[in-house]
């Protein structure tokens, strides 16, 4: 018997995300286009996200406690800033749940978009209004941010 939808909030949340994205694709694309500079736009953004989530779900189907190795919507991410060894936590969320003061950033925000789908222990360069910042993704865990 497969209890994945009943007992695994991570799987349940990711499946709900896929349904939400597919049902609201037009509105999400409009938000994506309006919040992304022309030179940063990737019109396969949602297709790539959906494919990565589906791959994760199929690969973790028989796992009791699947762990995240990539940043998905609903992930809490610990970033290590290389320059000063400072660690900061962000939760990647849908736009309506965004609250930067509490560390909740939209997956469509510049930083959220740059973190999405990157891997645990991956070093990336974040492009921010203050310039380039080197960070390492030190921890990724599921956070149900309802």
Automatic annotation (TrEMBL):
One of its GO terms (molecular function) is DNA binding. SUPFAM superfamilies: FKBP-like (SSF54534). One of its GO terms (biological process) is DNA-templated transcription elongation. Residues 69-141 form the Transcription elongation factor GreA/GreB C-terminal domain. InterPro entries: GreA/GreB_C_sf, Tscrpt_elong_fac_GreA/B_C, Tscrpt_elong_fac_GreA/B_fam. Coiled coil: none annotated. This is Transcription elongation factor GreA/GreB C-terminal domain-containing protein. It comes from Aneurinibacillus danicus.
